[in-house]
């Protein structure tokens, strides 16, 4: 297979995935999450149910179709930051961008749907835990950060909670302004003794 064929195949897969996700979200918002089944989504998107499941592991995953990108953005805030750039400002910058995206007017109906569904709220919790673990792994793997795995996991959970709390606040940026100094202080307090 040539590079061009592989590229075309990947673009086609991405387009199919996006079509399924867009169709699902439209149906969920029009009819209600619980009123729409997987077969409804597949039929409306003009794909087989097996094709839908090859792109999404569950009905809930259709709502959170961008969660993989969210996770990559968080880990890249660690791995792609400039040399000698402190960790906490890099994380704050990315969390702020994610909060702005998730608090845009267009996102409000989606979050209302999530908040109204116990299944989606539970799925959101598992997604956040997975994001925290991925972020913790990125922090722990950075030799310049010299913190224990426990500290990395704790910080990652703080950052994910900062995102959630800020997204839910009436003034998300003000909430981040309150939360991140506490995260910075916790990170500084966990500095190894030889770095004090």
From TrEMBL:
Sorted UniProt keywords: DNA-binding, Transcription, Transcription regulation
Superkingdom assignment: Bacteria
Pfam families, per database record: TetR_N
UniProt KW Transcription regulation keyword: yes
Residues within the DNA-binding region(s): 37-56
GO molecular-function terms, A-Z: DNA-binding transcription factor activity; transcription cis-regulatory region binding
Domain HTH tetR-type: 14-74
InterPro entries the record matches: Homeodomain-like_sf, HTH-type_TetR-like_transc_reg, HTH_TetR
Family matches, as PROSITE patterns: HTH_TETR_2
Name assigned to this protein: TetR/AcrR family transcriptional regulator
Organism name: Streptomyces tendae
